[in-house]
Amino acid sequence: MHAFGQILKIETRLFLRDFGSPLTTVALPLALLLVFGLIPAGRQPEAQFGDLSFIQYFAPSLLVITLAMSAVNILPTVLATYRERGVLRRLATTPASPAALLAAQLVLSLATILVSAVLLIGVGRLAFDVPLPRRPLGFTLALVLGTAALLALGLLVAAVARTAKSAQALAVPLFMAVMFFGGVYVPRFLLPDFLVRIGDYTPPGVQALLDAWTGTSPHPLHLGIMAVVAVAAGATAAKLFRWE
Amino acid sequence: MPVIEVTNLHKRYGDLVAVADVSFTVEAGEIFGVLGPNGAGKTTTVECAAGLRVPDGGGVSVLGLDPRRDAAQLRQRVGVQLQESQLPDQLRVSEALELYASFYRDPADPADLIDRLGLGDKRNTAYKKLSGGQKQRLSIALALVGNPSVAILDELTTGLDPQSRRDTWALIEQIRHSGVTIVLVTHFMEEAERLCDRVAVIDRGRVVALDSPAGLVSTVLPEQRVRFRPSAPVDDRLFTDLPEVTAVQRTGSQVVVTGTGDVLHAVTSVLARTQIIVADLRLEQSTLDDAFVELTGHRPAE
């Protein structure tokens, strides 16, 4: 336990020291929230968003940035790099286990996602009157399942990729798909209907987050798919993962 | 009791036999070298001893423990520096040592170890910014931070410049003086000759020689050459009559006497008896390098 604590402390330091990681996972979505929130039109309810303001409608997509960056980009790249450089192998020769390092990375991802979610919800509420999630339980469930699905996919990439380079090659298209269907690149109301529907079922499930944030319960099928992805990808990753 | 006992070790990866049949013992306090051409099975052998791989046959015992069954105990007492194992770029020297120290029950003082390994002025430097020699010293420090009884060091000085290599050798001698038993995997014969008390030469998964470096050379290539320039003409028969001598050759004013055993003493005794003064007297012995080529048919990789 002592070793795990030390590993987590060091991995957190390395995460913060690598300027790009906190910037893209936490600072970027928050900065976008501030930019869109400061545009007056972004705060007016609009019929095309179901009487929500644009930032309210777009906030779940900002959370998708954090989720995608942390779970399918940074996590697999870091793990594949550690394996390629023999960091995991070296740990296997000490009384500490490489599993402790994997666990520390997962905790770090979860913490990043939690911090970003709290900041987006809190700043949205305080600065731009975005209501707090109206279905806190449903929102928590949607966030937990969406996060689990993406982390499992990230671990699957880390399991399949032999080197940091091939992890990147796999992670980048996945990352872009998650961002696209999560409505980050093009807000979803501009997408054709069938792409929006695909997005509903693409991890982390931006529609379920939006529903729970703005008033209705998340659709059970949306949540169910996330659970299935999490279990299937997670189990496959566990089967394929190698320490060296 | 030997510190490491490897008995008829066998290990294959699929159809590829990495280690066919390897046996040796390592005694307490010695520096034991594992030599061999690339792909001979050196690394696999020590990885089995370190508990990183499960042998397909034979036995390994380290400090009287089974590397698989008693893995937790053994990891407290065996320090391992692996071939080509790096650290995260942004990790600082002191952070790396403090982190690894936290894994052990009775670790060395990281600050003290940093000084001993000559990294004192680099303690706050990121791994990425270290030179090759400094990275290697940090890697050795990590293998030692748990105060191990045994240190297994794989390809210690590969990729280092000659000065860093010599510095690293001095370091290894210093570690041995502190009572640590060391297993050194290397393909540098000069390194083995300088550091090792005994070496096992492994070729194609088998031990082909097991001796001290000097013993190995004198068994495999017993011939030595005594080269000198005599002050007065000498008769070849003076030397060919000696039992140690096998041949006498002349190149210009130089005489080259080839022989085995204590040929130098035999030649100098004859010269003294006949009151011949010699200049440029040199003894040429085969090196471990030559013996290695003789044994394995490979040039040691440089």
From TrEMBL, chain A:
Record Pfam families: ABC2_membrane (PF01061)
Nucleus among keywords: no
Transmembrane segments: 21-42, 54-79, 100-127, 139-160, 167-186, 221-241
UniProt entry keywords in alphabetical sequence: Cell membrane, Membrane, Transmembrane, Transmembrane helix, Transport
Domain ABC transmembrane type-2: 20-244
Domain of life assignment: Bacteria
Topology term for the membrane: Multi-pass membrane protein
GO molecular function: ABC-type transporter activity
Chief subcellular location: membrane
Entry's localization field: Cell membrane; Membrane
InterPro entries (UniProt xref): ABC-2_transporter, ABC2_TM, ABC2_TM_bact-type
A Gene Ontology term for the protein's cellular component: plasma membrane
Similarity comment: family membership: Belongs to the ABC-2 integral membrane protein family.
Protein name from the UniProt record: Transport permease protein
Species in which this protein is naturally found: Micromonospora acroterricola
UniProtKB/TrEMBL annotation, chain B:
An example Gene Ontology CC term for this record: plasma membrane
GO molecular function: ATP binding; ATP hydrolysis activity
Membrane topology: Peripheral membrane protein
Principal location: membrane
Every ABC transporter domain range: 4-229
Keywords per UniProt: Antibiotic resistance, ATP-binding, Cell membrane, Membrane, Nucleotide-binding, Translocase, Transport
Keyword ATP-binding: yes
Cited InterPro entries: AAA+_ATPase, ABC_transporter-like_ATP-bd, ABC_transporter-like_CS, ABC_transporter_ATP-binding, P-loop_NTPase
Pfam family, one: ABC_tran
Cellular localisation: Cell membrane
Signal sequence extent: none
Protein's recorded name: Multidrug ABC transporter ATP-binding protein
Species annotation: Micromonospora acroterricola
